[in-house]
Amino acid sequence: MRFADDGLIPNHPAWPLLIYRTPVALSKSLDPAAVMEAVFETNGWGDSWRNGIYPYVHYHSRIHEVLGVARGKASVRFGGEKGRTILLKAGDVAVLPAGTGHQCQAASDDFLVVGAYPPFGTYDECTKPKQHEAALHSIAALPPAETDPVFGTKGPLIELWRS
To answer: How many helices (H) and strands (E) are present in the chain, helices listed first?
Structure first.
C-alpha cells in the first residue's frame, strides 16, 4: 500500500506499507507481547517497546518500524490526512518504511502494540511541516531493511523493498 507525499507527511517514495493479517499465532497461555517481541527479534528487528500508537499523525524519517498488535484492536490511519484508515486486530502486523505517517484514531481499552526496528537507523519523530524537507533527504538515504520482521530472509518485505 503506497501513499503520496501530502506536503506534511512524505510517506516513502518507493516502498509500500505492508499489512500482514495474523501472521503471528497468539495463544492465551503465552504473553502475546512476548511472542511478538520474540518473532521480531528472531528476524533481526529489535529495540522493541510496548504501548499504543500516538493519537496524532507522525512519522519516522531515519528508521523503518514494525508494529505488531498483541492485544485488542484499533483503527489506525496510515499515510497522513489523505491516507487510509485500517482496522488492526490482535495478531496483525504493519511494517512501515521510513516516512510513513501513522496515527491511532480509535482503540479498544486493551489495545497493546509491540514496536521494533531494524538494526540500523536512528529513531526520530516528525510531526511538523518544517521537518518535511530534511525528512525527504533522510528517507532517500536510508537503505531497505535486510530482513522481514516476520518472515526473515523471505517474504513480502524482501520482494517489495529489496527488488
So the answer is: 3, 8
CA distance 52 to 55: 9
**Domain spans, the chain:** 18-118+130-161
Where does the pLDDT of residue 28 fall: very low under 50, low under 70, confident under 90, or very high at 90 and above? Answer: confident
Supply the pLDDT for residue 1.
Answer: 94
**Widest CA span of the chain, in angstroms?**
47
Residue 148: DSSP 8-state: B
Query: Which grid cell sits at 134?
Result: 530534511
**pLDDT attached to residue 162:** 86
List strand residue ranges (DSSP E) for the chain, in order.
18-20, 46-51, 65-71, 73-78, 84-89, 93-96, 102-107, 112-117
Average pLDDT, the chain: 96
Per the CB < 8 A criterion, the answer to whether 114 and 37 are in contact is yes
H or E, element range at 156: helix 156-161
What pLDDT does residue 115 have? 98
**With respect to CATH, is domain 18-118+130-161 assigned 3.40.50.2000?**
no
Our measurement of the distance from residue 16's CA atom to the centroid of its chain's CA atoms, rounded to an integer in Å, reads 11
